[in-house]
């Protein structure tokens, strides 16, 4: 049976893209067609295997409590055993499906998008490695494996964000992404070390069984610190405040990469880590509260920035940050189901929107500003349709995918905390507004005369159609098929929609979209007038609350400053000490060399004088003489 | 009777004269001569000790002969060096031959 | 085959190469290089065989040879390797082999250059295979003099003149070795009563167990050794020779020095310091841990302010030494496993880094970061080498640097939580300066002035391919290295456990 085969060969899912990376990266860089074929082919097989795994999980009744685990020893020294392996439960099976699907779509799309690019083969090699690293992370059996692939995902994002390395902005963005996530990884690494020392193991399954006993015995104080340290990793990787700054800059990469980073790999890794280690977080109420508040704040904060941005990809980037905040919020209030559900629907519609944005940029090269576009719906109907579906989905309009998952999150939040619920609802309103703004400004209105847009080629349209269909049905079908019974942690999910919450959010979203139409579409209100009236607020939002400037200042002043100070000390002070130490013998030599007059007879005099003194000294000391002094023999 | 003490006294006087000459003479020829005096003082000692303390063996005398031979060689080499120095520097004054410092 | 003196063969191969080279006419430039390469290839092959044939499950010293040399003093020609020294021996050979090819373009007095290069390698090999302190010291000193000559004759002057740098390096290392010599003599005299004295490391290691070395003797002797090995290992504050020396030295010498010779310090600290003087090690460990953290952070910040590529690699190497020292100072098996493995990984990584810097310098005639840029356009292969070295340096999993650092941290975290936390924060700053260098040197707009520079090709690729492969292989299969290292540390475990419960003067606190 195929699902049997898939379940016993899960390791092939990350391995095939890795093989594709090696083949394409080392041998096929000069053969674009072959490179793309190999790469897409491997992804296709991976995707098929993931489907098999997904089916196998249901068929063999593999649940969160009863995962399928395979381990291979990787490192074994006295006192430390680390395995690599495969951890299959509904959560990871779902992730495998999402990652392979989006990776496949992005690769197909890239055939058209990257056509003629000098680094075509290199690009596909990186994409394969990226997918491979993310898949390895998804099936991790312990924190070390998670961390290993976590960092590799970071490396791939570095390579891909900096893909156009001739552009200074791209190389700086890549560097920023790596360093910012590194700050989070510092906490993650320390947290992992803590866990190993407290529990003597890093294996998820063993930890899960040890945590309750530990909490019962030692309380939660230390463990809460450990959990928050661990959470620093997801803060960095998933672009949560205050380490969100790299994510919008990551738009410097080619658009398919943005789709991959934002929808399926990299940023969701953080959410996935929290979900995977949920046995730990769920035992620590304080840590959960931190996660929830950071998630909620990030969601609202990023949405308020997206309000005023003009770069099409940046708007999408801030919407990703905001949606990731939602997922974290859901985890923070204890609902793995809602978080994972939203992760999935978000992957569909965000990949869809990014690829649609890519199609727009492909049709209008060298234009990023949405106000320089306009009226594209005539020339790019497929793209327009795709973007519309995406916007409706993210705004939570039924029956699109986002409606179901967002409702799930709002419900979970409302049961835990009212302030958080209000934040979430407000964010939902803002989301609908700025996404509608993007759609209206880009596609509606009149065409700009200098623009000569054209619809994307076939290879780019296919992924749009596939993802578009998923963004429509990807919410209802899982909802109707008891998604929550499978992908969950602890408690089983609730049944059915909560109509009051669903109605509230839907009405608010429709209101927001109408508002956006009123401002940007109808032509009755001038947006410029508005931005002028709320000048200070507009500027604050447009300049992203000056967080980047603050970090730059911090880095420049403290890190570089300290470096310069220490370097100055190094050259003048340490080197001075060394010089001083070296000069000491020279100085001493200068002192004593004055005695060397070269006068032969003076040397002789000193010599004999010294000899005389020694002789007298010896005589005085000799027992014979001392005896004589004390009135002895003579 | 003339005993060991007399010989040693003479030797000491000769040695002291030699030492004085060594330290005070201005030319290296004089210094070399003073060294010869000191060597001879030692020879006197050697022979005197041998004669008075171990008369049965002639170690001291033989040593003295050695010393004389070595001293002769030394004078030969020393004079050669002095000539060489004189040719080069046109002087044999010890005080002026002080380049070998610092 | 059992009785084949494998280690002697490994040691003699480069010596034999030196002898052949010394009778070659100096005009035979190509032949000289070929002979060096063949020599090192044979030595590397033998070492790989030794590594492969070493019985990890058995552990302990293997390939033992022992011929009495000066029995009156207890000196013998004793060779042997275990899991601690074998990785370092392999490291020496890998880097030694690469340096021959890195130095392929040396035209000036190539005969003398390669003779001295081989001498340096012999010195390092000798220290790692010898089981006799006397021989150990002999080979250790052998490494210092050629470096002086090579820096002065074939080096380059940038911030400081090469003569100054060479003199500084030599004086530091000789001064260090003077302390070391004093320590070794103190050990020799105190370990056993007259008549039974010996230089054999194995026998000396028993002296503590039988109670011949009092605590005070151990503390003083260890301090002397620490001063010696600390300056070799460029421990703060005895590191000042390293950046200048590396910057002035020709590429091959920088590689050998930073990659191999430095590791002799760490090896000595473990082999002599810890195994023979455990109480001394325990006393000084907290100080070492403190200096280790200073090493990591201080050098990292100084690196951030550097402009010259070789200084960047030099200071970054000092910063990494901190991780090794921290692993050592924690005095448990996991952390010391990590420290030893880190010596290997760091050696390979730094050597690759220096090789790449050397290539860039050779082709562009500059090492200043601000006058470089966009080299990935013209030299993609060099860029790959830079990336590999840089990523390993910032501890990316999948490359050799990660698992050693991880295990050092893990072992040290139990003992020195605060120090370890500070040291781990070093990975952020490492990322900062490494990524800046990569960004400013490799990426950015194409610069026309470098269009004439050709990418690495032919023999220039040897070091890139060899060292890069090792970085990846060890990164993906860490057990290859860690298993070997662990087999060397496992016999020591009992000692370490006992050491932890021994009531001893710890960090200057009186019992």
Short description:
The complex is a heterotrimer of chains A (634), B (102) and C (511). Chain A is an all-alpha fold and 634 residues long. Chain A is 74% helix and 3% strand.
Helical content of chain B stands at over 70%
- Taking pLDDT < 50 over at least 5 consecutive residues as the criterion, the unreliable ranges of chain A are none
The total strand number of chain A stands at 2
Distance between the termini of chain A: 122 Å
Describe this structure in words.
The complex is a heterotrimer of chains A (634), B (102) and C (511). With 634 residues, chain A is mostly helical. Chain A folds into 4 domains: 1-283, no CATH class; 292-322 and 335-542, no CATH class; 543-595; 597-634. Helices cover 74% and strands 3% of the residues of chain A. Chain A has helices at residues 2-8, 12-27, 32-59, 90-113, 120-138, 143-161, 168-199, 204-218, 221-237, 246-249, 255-263, 267-276, 278-281, 285-306, 312-332, 336-363, 381-395, 401-416, 418-443, 458-473, 476-480, 483-486, 499-521, 527-533, 535-542, 547-593, 600-621, 623-629; strands at 68-77, 80-88. In chain A, helix 3 packs parallel to helix 5 (120-138) and helix 16 crosses helix 18. Chain A is elongated. Chain A starts with a helix and ends in a 5-residue tail after the last helix. Chain B is mostly helical and 102 residues long. Chain B is built from 3 helices and no strands. The longest helix of chain B has 31 residues, at 59-89. The radius of gyration of chain B is 17 Å and the shape is elongated. By secondary structure, chain C is mainly alpha-helical. Chain C has one domain. Helices cover 72% and strands 3% of the residues of chain C. Chain C is built from 20 helices and 2 strands. The N and C termini of chain C lie far apart (53 Å). The relative contact order of chain C is 0.10. Chains A and C meet through strand 1, helix 6, helix 7 and helix 26 of A and helix 11, helix 13, helix 16, helix 17 and helix 19 of C.
Secondary structure elements and pairings:
The complex is a heterotrimer of chains A (634), B (102) and C (511).
Chain A lengths: L1 H7 L3 H16 L4 H28 L8 E10 L2 E9 L1 H24 L6 H19 L4 H19 L6 H32 L4 H15 L2 H17 L8 H4 L5 H9 L3 H10 L1 H4 L3 H22 L5 H21 L3 H28 L17 H15 L5 H16 L1 H26 L14 H16 L2 H5 L2 H4 L12 H23 L5 H7 L1 H8 L4 H47 L6 H22 L1 H7 L5
Helix pairs in contact in A: 1-3, 2-3, 2-5, 3-4, 3-5, 4-5, 4-11, 4-16, 4-20, 5-6, 6-7, 7-9, 9-12, 9-14, 11-16, 12-15, 12-16, 14-15, 14-19, 15-16, 15-18, 15-19, 16-17, 16-18, 16-20, 17-19, 17-20, 18-19, 18-23, 19-23, 24-25
Chain B lengths: L3 H21 L3 H25 L6 H31 L13
Chain C lengths: L5 H17 L6 H25 L8 E9 L4 E7 L3 H18 L7 H20 L3 H22 L7 H30 L9 H9 L5 H18 L8 H8 L2 H26 L1 H27 L4 H21 L3 H32 L10 H4 L1 H14 L8 H14 L1 H26 L17 H17 L2 H11 L3 H9 L10
Antiparallel strand pairs in C: 1-2
Helix pairs in contact in C: 1-2, 1-4, 2-3, 2-4, 3-4, 3-10, 3-13, 3-18, 4-5, 4-10, 5-6, 5-10, 6-8, 6-9, 7-10, 8-10, 8-11, 9-10, 9-12, 10-11, 10-12, 10-13, 11-12, 11-17, 12-13, 12-16, 12-17, 13-15, 13-16, 13-18, 13-19, 15-17, 15-18, 16-17
């Amino acid at each position: 049976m195929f699902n049997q085969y898939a379940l016993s060969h899960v390791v092939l899912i990350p391995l095939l893209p890795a093989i594709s990376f090696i083949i394409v990266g080392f041998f096929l860089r000069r053969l674009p067609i072959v490179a793309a074929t190999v790469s897409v082919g491997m992804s296709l097989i991976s995707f098929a295997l993931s489907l098999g795994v997904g089916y196998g999980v249901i068929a063999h009744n593999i649940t969160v409590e009863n995962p399928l685990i395979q381990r291979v020893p990787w490192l074994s020294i006295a006192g430390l055993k680390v395995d690599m392996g495969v951890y299959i439960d509904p959560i990871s099976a779902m992730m495998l499906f999402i990652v392979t699907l989006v990776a496949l779509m992005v690769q197909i799309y890239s055939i058209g998008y990257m056509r003629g690019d000098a680094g075509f083969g290199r690009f596909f090699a990186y994409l394969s490695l990226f997918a491979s690293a993310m898949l390895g992370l998804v099936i991790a059996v312990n924190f070390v494996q998670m961390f290993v692939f976590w960092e590799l995902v970071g490396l791939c994002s570095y390579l891909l964000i900096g893909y156009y390395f001739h552009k200074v902005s791209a190389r700086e963005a890549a560097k920023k992404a790596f360093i910012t996530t590194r700050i989070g990884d510092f906490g993650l690494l320390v947290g992992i070390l803590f866990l190993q020392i407290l529990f003597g193991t890093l294996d998820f399954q063993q930890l899960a069984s040890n945590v309750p006993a530990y909490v019962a015995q030692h309380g939660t104080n230390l463990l809460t610190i450990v959990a928050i340290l661990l959470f620093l990793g997801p803060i960095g990787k998933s672009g949560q405040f205050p380490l969100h700054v790299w994510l919008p800059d990551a738009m410097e990469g080619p658009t398919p990469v943005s789709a991959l980073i934002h929808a399926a790999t990299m940023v969701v890794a953080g959410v996935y880590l929290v979900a995977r280690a949920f046995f730990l977080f769920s035992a620590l109420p304080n840590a959960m509260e931190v996660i929830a508040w950071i998630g909620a704040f990030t969601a609202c904060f990023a949405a308020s920035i997206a309000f005023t941005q003009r770069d099409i990809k940046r708007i999408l980037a801030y919407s990703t940050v905001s949606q990731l905040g939602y997922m974290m919020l859901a985890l923070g209030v204890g609902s793995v189901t809602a978080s994972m559900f939203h992760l999935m629907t978000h992957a569909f519609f965000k990949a869809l929107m990014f690829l649609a944005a890519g199609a727009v940029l492909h049709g209008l090269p060298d234009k990023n500003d949405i106000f320089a576009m306009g009226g594209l719906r005539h020339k790019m109907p497929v793209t327009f349709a795709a973007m519309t579906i995406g916007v409706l989905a993210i705004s939570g309009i039924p029956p699109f995918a986002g409606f179901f998952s967002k409702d799930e999150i709002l419900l979970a939040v409302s049961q835990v905390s009212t302030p958080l619920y209000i934040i979430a609802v407000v964010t939902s309103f803002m989301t609908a507004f700025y996404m509608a703004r993007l759609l209206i400004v880009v596609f509606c209105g009149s065409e700009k005369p200098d623009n000569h847009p054209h619809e994307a080629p076939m290879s780019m349209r296919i992924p749009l159609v596939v993802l578009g269909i998923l963004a429509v049905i990807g919410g209802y079908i899982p909802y109707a098929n008891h998604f929550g019974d499978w992908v969950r942690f602890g408690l089983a999910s609730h049944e059915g929609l909560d109509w009051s919450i669903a109605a509230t959010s839907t009405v608010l979203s429709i209101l927001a979209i109408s508002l956006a139409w009123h401002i940007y579409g109808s032509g009755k209100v001038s947006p410029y007038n508005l931005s002028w009236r709320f000048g200070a607020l507009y500027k604050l939002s447009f300049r992203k609350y000056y967080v980047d400037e603050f970090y730059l200042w911090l880095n420049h002043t403290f890190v570089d400053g300290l470096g310069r100070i220490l370097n100055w000390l190094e050259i003048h002070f340490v080197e001075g000490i060394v010089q001083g130490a070296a000069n000491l013998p020279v100085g001493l030599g200068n002192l004593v060399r004055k005695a060397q007059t070269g006068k032969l007879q003076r040397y002789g005099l000193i010599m004999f004088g010294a000899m005389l003194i020694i002789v007298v000294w010896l005589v005085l000391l000799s027992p014979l003489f001392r005896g004589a002094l004390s009135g002895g023999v003579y | 009777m003339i005993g060991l003490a007399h010989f040693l006294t003479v030797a000491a006087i000769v040695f002291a004269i030699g030492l004085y000459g060594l330290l005070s003479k201005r030319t290296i020829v004089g210094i070399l001569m003073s060294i010869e005096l000191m060597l001879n003082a030692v020879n006197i000692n050697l022979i005197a000790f041998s004669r008075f303390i171990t008369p049965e063996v002639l170690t001291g005398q033989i040593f003295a002969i050695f010393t004389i031979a070595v001293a002769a060689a030394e004078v030969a080499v020393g004079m050669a060096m002095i000539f060489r120095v004189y040719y080069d520097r046109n002087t044999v004054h010890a005080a002026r031959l002080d380049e070998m410092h610092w | 085959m059992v009785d084949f003196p494998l280690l002697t063969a490994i040691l003699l191969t480069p010596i034999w190469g030196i002898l052949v080279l010394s009778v070659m006419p100096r005009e035979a430039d190509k032949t000289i290089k070929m002979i060096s390469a063949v020599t090192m290839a044979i030595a590397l092959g033998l070492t790989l065989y030794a590594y492969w044939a070493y019985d990890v499950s058995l552990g302990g010293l293997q390939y033992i040879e022992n011929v009495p040399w000066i029995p009156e003093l207890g000196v013998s020609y004793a060779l042997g390797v275990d899991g601690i020294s074998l990785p370092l021996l392999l490291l020496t050979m890998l880097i030694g082999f690469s340096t021959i090819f890195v130095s392929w373009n040396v035209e000036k007095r190539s005969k003398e250059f390669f003779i001295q290069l081989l001498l340096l390698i012999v010195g390092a090999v000798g220290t790692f295979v010898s089981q006799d302190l006397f021989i150990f010291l002999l080979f250790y000193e052998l490494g210092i003099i050629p470096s002086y000559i090579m820096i002065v004759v074939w080096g380059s002057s940038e911030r400081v003149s090469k003569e100054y740098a060479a003199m500084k390096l030599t004086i530091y290392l000789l001064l260090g070795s003077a302390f070391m010599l004093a320590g070794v003599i103190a050990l020799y005299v105190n370990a056993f009563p007259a008549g039974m004295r010996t230089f054999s490391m194995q026998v000396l290691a028993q002296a503590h167990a039988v109670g011949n070395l009092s605590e005070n003797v151990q503390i003083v002797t260890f301090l002397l050794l620490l001063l010696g090995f600390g300056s070799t290992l460029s421990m703060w504050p005895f590191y000042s020779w390293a950046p200048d020396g590396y910057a002035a030295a020709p590429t091959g010498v920088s590689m050998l020095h930073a990659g191999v010779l430095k590791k002799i310090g760490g090896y000595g600290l473990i082999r002599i310091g810890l195994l023979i003087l455990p109480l001394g090690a325990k006393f000084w460990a907290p100080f070492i841990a403190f200096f280790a953290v200073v090493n990591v952070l201080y050098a990292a910040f100084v690196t951030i302010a550097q402009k010259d590529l070789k200084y960047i690699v030099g200071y970054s190497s000092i910063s990494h030494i901190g991780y090794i020292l921290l692993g050592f100072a924690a005095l448990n098996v996991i952390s010391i496993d990590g420290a030893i493995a880190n010596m290997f990984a760091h050696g390979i990584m730094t050597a690759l880094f220096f090789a790449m810097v050397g290539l860039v310098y050779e082709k562009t005639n500059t090492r200043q970061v601000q006058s470089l840029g966009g080299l990935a356009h013209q030299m993609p292969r060099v860029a790959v080498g830079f990336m590999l070295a840089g990523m390993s340096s910032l501890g990316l999993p999948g490359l050799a640097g990660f698992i050693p650092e991880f295990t050092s941290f893990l072992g040290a975290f139990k003992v020195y939580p605060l120090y370890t936390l500070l040291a781990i924060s070093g990975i952020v700053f490492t990322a900062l300066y490494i990524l800046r260098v990569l960004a400013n040197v490799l990426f950015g707009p194409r610069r026309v002035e470098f269009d004439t520079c050709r990418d690495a090709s032919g023999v220039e690729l040897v070091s890139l391919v060899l060292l890069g492969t090792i970085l990846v292989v060890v990164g993906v299969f860490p057990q290859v290295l860690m298993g070997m290292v662990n087999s060397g540390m496992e016999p020591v475990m009992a000692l370490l456990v006992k050491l932890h419960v021994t009531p001893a003067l710890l960090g200057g606190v009186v019992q």
